[in-house]
Amino acid sequence: MKTPLTLTASAVVLTAGLAQAQEVRVYNWSDYIDEDLLAEFEEETGIELIYDVFDSNEVLETKMLAGGSGYDVVVPTGTFLQRQIAAGAFQELDKSKLPNLENMWDVIEERTAKYDPGNAYSINYMWGTTGLGVNVPMVKEILGEDAPVNSWDLVFDPENMEQLAECGVMFLDAPAEMIPAALNYIGEDPDSHEPEVIEQAEGVFMPIRPYIQKFHSSEYINALANGDICVAVGWSGDILQARDRAAEADNGVEISYFAPKEGAQMWFDQMAIPVDAPNPDAAHEFLNFIMDAENMAQASNYVYYANGNEASQEYLNEDVIGDPAIYPDAEALDNTFTTTPYPPRVQRTVTRLWTKIKSGT
Amino acid sequence: MRRVVLIAVPYLWLLALFLVPFVIVLKISLSDIALARPPYLPQLDLSAGWQGVREFLSGLDLENFVFLTTDDLYWKAYLSSLRIALVSTLLTLLVGYPIAYGMARAAREWRPTLLMLVILPFWTSFLIRVYAWMGILSTEGVLNNVLLFLGVIDEPLQIMNTNTAVYIGIVYTYLPFMILPIYAALEKMDDSLLEAAEDLGCSRLQAFWLVTWPLSRNGIVAGCFLVFIPTIGEFVIPSLLGGSDTLMIGKVLWEEFFSNRDWPVASAVAVVLLAILIVPIILFQRNEQKAREAEG
After folding, report:
1. Considering only alpha carbons, which residue of chain B is nearest residue A8?
2. How many domains in chain A?
3. Which of A268, B11, B31, B85 could make a disulfide contact with B40, Cβ separation 3.0–4.6 Å?
4. Is there a single domain that holds both residue A355 and residue A217?
5. Distance to chain A for B189, nearest Cα, Å
């Protein structure tokens, strides 16, 4: 079940200042951890853990920029992290308190250093790609056996979308990922910061927008799993969770994840400590706990996202480490792209364009 | 002296809960976006004394309000919100009036129970009730399954993520705000007036139009405003039940605030929204005052 984000947002503020014992307040994405780990952390360290969830980077960023969020550990995505570091929202990590840093994977650290030079402010929690969640039997029934399920053609070609509208298609409500995907599809630089280039994404979305049921960043997990929709553009692990929920419910729904062959965006969710965190020491303990190889493996085995922890790989289940949708091989990794944050003026162009795409005005 | 204190209390209340927040929003609407914490400039620097205040004031301008006029998104969203609010208010009245009427006509010993039933939904979180509607209205939801089972429809209805779902959500959520004032007005009505009307040759329908309806007018007006005013700025219902083409100013405001991180423009949108709402709020106050005078 999804937790309504507005509810959880207020919970922590209300409890602030009441507890006396040492505590740590963690603000993470929804459906993004094995909750057994939370109890294990409390048991191991004696620190009380207060865990809250969100489902959009925008909500987190607003809290970070407003300050005084009361959280000790938050999990922004790389591009958002970079901007928040620039705004002075985070404190540098005290690496002497993080002995488990040695477990981290250099392949990922190299990439995250693009957002956080030297990985001074953050550790990688999980990473993944943005691609297509497909109910293959349903889609093949509509588009035929040769349906392009592993290509952006599936959702960016209006002819396919017109037919797929019948069984339901959802897109992420995340312009910073959807617009680069469209630009990549038409052969432009997905990381372009030129308004003229960005505006070309309109030409991709306008013909297909009548066939999109909804833009939302978390509802598609349940919608896919229930068979309410047949295609979702979403995050890899979320789609694999939908696959699992459908399998558990045994409702005949079969979901697969595809990183499109034209290229998929790769993103990194980073754990960082706000500059005004009330309990920075406990926050470091939490980060160190998460970087423990077995703990990190337990989290990945549960949520089906790859992590940036090399030592954890020996504890990963075969259906995680062996699944190329989660741990792509080197060739597939080369086929991914990353993006950087937009400056404010360009951000306005992007949001305005996204509003136009979503609402038609 | 006592009188001054008595009068001062409500005014202090108004000052603390309305005026101070409004001035803060107004101040932000006159600022400029910046990459900082909080993300706007100028910041008031009191340590620099008068110099700081003067610098702060010179950094404020109306740029963001001018910006709102350059893009037709904003006035379209305001208009669309007004339309959705108007239609929802009418629908709520259509559903609410018969309920209030039935309650007021019910046997006296039943009325507290009926009143309780109207208020009961408030005991559950508003969000959970909206989520429940998602379960009812979705393609694989309760409503579609029942209709399919009964053979009323062959294909599931697409209600979820459309404006229809938004109307259903708003009417459901705000119904008690419509029922309660109308019920209050009807309950006070003297039944002998109806008998008199019938004695004087009115049919029951005529008696309703000539006696009951005008006497419940204050309740109707109060109920309509209580539904209309919060509906204009509604955000939760359209974002959970509505589709991508449901354009409401609450959503636009959210985008400005969260996606653009542009607190100044978001504040300007909020200030204009308040200006739009002031007219119906004043009308509402005047209606209440007239009602009180008529009673007094």
Report:
1. B127
2. 2
3. B31
4. yes
5. 42
